[in-house]
Amino acid sequence: MKFIYTISIFLYSILIKLASPFNIKARQISDGRGRVFAELNAKIKHDRPIIWVHCASLGEFEQGRPIIEAIKKDHPQYRILLTFFSPSGYEIRKDYKLADYICYLPSDTSRNARKLIELVQPELVFFVKYEFWYNFITELKNRNIPLYLVSAIFRKNQLFFKSSPWGKWYRNMLSGFEHFFVQDERSVQLLAQIDIHNVTKAGDTRFDRVAEIARNGKNIPIVEKFKGSNQLVVAGSTWKPDEELLVQYIHSHPETKFIIAPHETKKTNIERIMNLLKNAAICYSVASEESVMNKQVLIIDTIGLLSAIYKYADLAYIGGGFGVGIHNTLEAAVFGMPIVFGPNYLKFQEATSMVNLEIAYSISDYDSLHAIMQDLLTDTPKKDSISRDCITFANQNLGATSIILDKVLNKP
Question: The whole model's pTM is what?
Fold first, then answer.
């Protein structure tokens, strides 16, 4: 099994290099991995112990971020190494101020694992959610460096729970973790079935992150002027299938204002959305407090505003549900409002919980979108009740960061 895994890692690295002249993300990964060791050699210091936090991408960073910030606040004796697998994480957060060192995760080979760990000499390591890299895990285990999995979630269809040779091999990888901090009771039970009991149900650290955002949320005068006394729907992290449904609703309901913050903010995508909406829309980058007042739609064509914008919404639409899966619902939930998204949400524990609590709604087509949005925007008592329940849900799930760090760093 190890041989097959090694070959697959090697082939993936070759494909990334071959694709790099033609694909920007492949080029970013290839170039980023190529400079990891030189940059760390030049920057690394061992005057303080180092904690290594690894996140696959931007979503996992939002789960690792509360841990990093709590360490920096309460345990300033540590330096932080932050690594990413994906360009969508590294390129956006490469200047994150609370990490001392930020780089790509090198390809998971035995040589790279030894080289990175010898260079960094981490005192302990956090992998976030789904990260399982055989050689890094093995090297950490061999060196008796504790490795923790945080905000993890397990499902019965994962390889760990299969009786196949691959399943047994992947299951053995789990022995390299000192402790698992999982999101839900189902994960606790699944791990118990394969005789893994070093598990704590801590919840999702993103709840702590979004609560912090809500506490420190900034005012955005242009958005305040844009909304005025109208009802406002904020559509966050949308993709083309989401936008095509929303545009139909927008055109038939001029009394409702919309903010659309697409997942992809490149110029060609913004122009495509603007062409769909014609004269009803204006981009945030060119808007003023005066020019937005007579527009129905405000397009957010910059990065970093969405989490603060949700506080102005009467209803939130979360994109991605007609693709691989929905984006962050918690950024909206913490401000208390009904939430709507597409059908592909079942892999997301918080979204499933919100649907079960009837504070979030899944739609499958325009008819269901129209019916649900009309109901939520016209039934004020119902909307207000959902808003209260949404805030309660967010507040009840706080505290994962404290549970994790109390067990890992605040041991008696």
Answer: 0.86
